[in-house]
Write the structure tokens for this entry.
Amino acid sequence: MSKHREFILRPIESILEEVPLALRNISPGLDTMGLYEYVMQSLFLKMTGFQEQKMKCICWELATDDYVYRYERYKKAPLGECSDLKEKNIVWGDLIEHVAKLEGHAVNIAEEEKLLIIDETKHVLEDFYKQTNMEGWAQREFHDYKMLISNCSKECLTFKTKKTMELFNHCENCVRRNSSGNDGSICKIGTLGEAYKALFEHRNRCAHNTLSYQHNLPSLQTLCKREYVFENYFLHFALLIMIDKMIICVFRHYLEVSNSDFSL
């Protein structure tokens, strides 16, 4: 299998598997609390960079097989870093479109596959939290994450508009439930797309070190905003993992229908 394909099929959660080894001699508690932000920010930047590179590799794989697409994507409408959701949706739509052309009909992820993606994502982060013994560092943040992700369902994943395919649904049903509940879940507070916006903004803050000239703590005005609940590393990780699993699912299908040799 080519290096690109091997990388695309490599799950992003493999980055989380490195942490227990790195922290095996550290006991999370008040005396080591200062390490928490360094560890989580390092993981976050590794995962965002990993996914950005994967999106570019997918474009390259499609362009290798389709010269018209190569011209369209690299000459007429080139992408940037593939860090924001808009560009990831473009790559997602490109991949879906290529599979649909090969299949001869519209394609999407099956309902049961969406449920499996959500369940596996929750399981990955539950294991990460327990195996890294983060109770002393992140008990409150992990509790908030579980509340936020609790009502995430298959309806939250993938959405087709007249022009594009999107990774996260706009969740109109969830938005309508906003006024009827206050349990703190994403379905009551906002959408996965809104949660990703917080992820993207935090990615820029970390990557460009924009906090270096600002106060360490957010203002009271920022803390009072409804969207501030999305400032959660575990939620950021969950969004990246769900995107990654959707991408891998469809890319495997692309390799199958395009008769690509898995042994290359």
User: Anything to note?
Assistant: The two ends are 4 Å apart (CA to CA). Strands lie at 157-160, 165-168.
